[in-house]
Write a structure and sequence with these properties.
Oligomer: homodimer
CATH superfamily of the largest domain in chain A: Type I PLP-dependent aspartate aminotransferase-like (Major domain)
Distance between the termini of chain A: 50 Å
Number of helices of chain A: 12
Helix content of chain A: 25-40%
Shape of chain A: globular
Number of strands of chain A: 14
Strand order of the largest sheet of chain A: 2-10-9-8-5-3-4
Number of domains of chain A: 2
């Protein structure tokens, strides 16, 4: 066959729902020579990653490490390890990712009770309390913290209290929230959590940082049935990421290098500083959007700092605007999904990409394209 | 917390069972700036990857692409998509990876008939023929082509004919064989195959190139039950890797860059040239080992070119030798697993690492350490 030429990506500003822009030092880490996945220097680095991930997630959970897949693999990791066939679970559904979690949980044999809110709004403690009255023995209550598909941030603390009062575990999707706004795993008593590397952590996509509380680990280790996924079975993974270092699968070396550097950057900046930066740039974007007649359409008071759901004005061709931004300005923003298709743009300001310069760039480009 | 310093890996020669050394141009590709996973330039690159992967696997299968996980995720991909609960399957077991596949298949609800050979030897067509007499309706026959844990290469063609004559699909693990010795998916009538990036393709670990024949796709699309893994469901993945480009999960952008460049390098060298290089360096290693009283212990006539199972002489501390190689020579080789633990070293000459210089380096170091 005709061998294609070397791939040469254009210089995009990644202001969509992820992947976000990656720092030069993370890209440099990705390009370091490989070592073996059982090499003592790699093992030491794995320990550093576990410690840094705990610091970023604000948890003391021993079982805190990155799963070798993207955020959706992290979702599946939590479900396959906690669910046994016939278990009842309660899942908040207010966007793509809650919908997806129901599908994943059902494939694990769970009886799923959906708690639904309109896309763009949050799941409330009252809704969860109602659901808990109807479900006799819930294994877990699950919430998507930051719904990337809608731009809404659901508060976790009250829901977690309700879940535990009913004897359930609390499961949290923090793919888009982690490192972009407060995520307090231990304070909120979250038992199982997964994230992704390609949002506010600003590493390339490919790993899913997860954490299980001792309570969740007890459920996973004392199950009656085998975990249906060998690849994601925490009973096997814990022997590799724990002290025994038993070979399970070959860890993605270069991605692990990248995550190590990305976590370092988060901690060197400081979590609070990083959250504040995301908040400030979100507010600047919101103000600038208002000046050109655009508004963020997710529920007031619960709008994400890292992902802005912007209403497409009547009469504007949303796809044409996105194409224009990409082709003429090298700016990627996201489209709406599901019921929001054609109705919103999704402007991400995640991790490295949450800068004043990016806010100005996307506002300037939109102003020209929309002739405002 | 005290933030750890920048990770700085030592310059290893990776002559173990994988990961193997990665070419500088592949590391460079890994460090390119990211684009979005639905960006037209990324989509074009995905098409190039599919075409190159077909060329390397010698197949015309439309459904040929990399799964977003390591080789073990590829194994699970094949099993979850083809197996429905209660299905009968036949699996050749002559090492770690056949053993693993039985576990994976059982977790999918399969009734597994194991065809066992001693570790280090191959699975024969006669053994498969015997098993086929006992299994009424086998869904597939599966073989590990190159058993990385033992260094034995099982011929596929006859076994595939027997499988098809019995109405079964043929499933092949070519994690270690692909691009290091002949792998002819279409000529051998293989229906489902998975590989890994970190062996003879010489990209970092993290993706699993897979391919399904139209026959296997028919089984996957016409199943009565949902695929138990959402993440690995080919019915969903085909919509992203196919013409529709429907969002499924966020593709691991940088790993995909790396695989693109690694596949380019394989095709620019030429498959036959690459196989020949692996053969020549294996023969040179074998000759040099014999000169210092060491021998390859896997079955004569079926020894892998890319992974050499070397018997540990009586009285030699195998772990001490490996530590010595790593610490004083920066050379990684592998240990034996399972029944071969302590009995063999595994010297990989995979992809970029299959060079005369590496053969000389490992022989020279072993000569000094063993005082030969």
């Amino acid at each position: 066959m005709q061998v294609p030429p070397v791939f040469n990506p254009p210089p995009r500003r990644l202001l969509g729902p992820g992947p976000s822009d990656v720092a030069p030092s993370v890209l440099e880490a990705m390009s370091l020579p490989l070592v073996g996945h059982l090499d003592p220097v790699f093992v030491k680095m794995m320990e550093e990653i576990k410690a840094m991930q705990r610091a970023v997630m604000l948890t003391k959970n021993e079982m805190t490490f990155p799963v070798s897949g993207t955020g959706s693999a992290g979702m599946e990791f939590c479900c396959v390890n906690l669910i046994e066939p016939g278990d009842e679970v309660i899942i908040g559904v207010n966007g793509v990712f809650g919908t997806r979690m129901c599908d994943v949980a059902e494939r694990c044999g769970a009886k799923v009770t959906k708690v639904e809110s309109a896309w763009g709004t949050i799941i409330t403690p009252e809704q969860i309390a109602d659901a808990l009255k109807k479900v006799s023995k819930p294994k877990f209550v699950a919430i998507v913290h930051a719904e990337t598909s809608t731009g809404a941030l659901t508060p976790v603390e009250e829901i977690s209290k309700l879940a535990h009062a009913a004897g359930a575990l609390m499961l949290l999707d923090c793919v888009t929230s982690l490192a972009g706004c407060p995520v307090r795993i231990d304070d909120w008593n979250v038992d199982a959590v997964y994230s992704g590397t390609q949002k506010c952590l600003s590493a390339p996509p490919g790993l899913s940082p997860v954490s299980l509380s001792p309570r969740a680990m007890e459920v996973a280790t004392k199950r009656k049935t085998k975990v249906q996924s060998w690849y994601l079975d925490v009973n096997l993974l814990s022997a590799y990421w724990g002290q025994e270092r038993v070979y399970h699968h070959t860890a993605p070396i270069s991605m692990t290098y990248g995550l190590h550097e990305a976590l370092r950057r988060v901690l060197l900046e400081g979590l609070e500083n990083r959250w504040h930066r995301h908040e400030q740039n979100h507010l600047a974007l919101k103000k600038g959007l208002a000046e050109i007649g655009l508004e963020i359409v997710s529920q007031a008071g619960h709008q994400l700092w890292q992902l802005n759901a912007v209403g497409v004005p009547a009469g504007v061709d949303e796809l044409a605007v996105r194409k224009h931004l990409l082709t003429d300005y090298n700016i990627e923003i996201g489209a709406g999904l599901g019921p929001l298709k054609g109705k919103i743009w999704r402007i991400g300001l995640m991790g490295e990409a949450s800068t004043k310069e990016n806010v100005d760039a996307v506002l300037g480009a939109l102003r020209k394209i929309l002739k405002k």
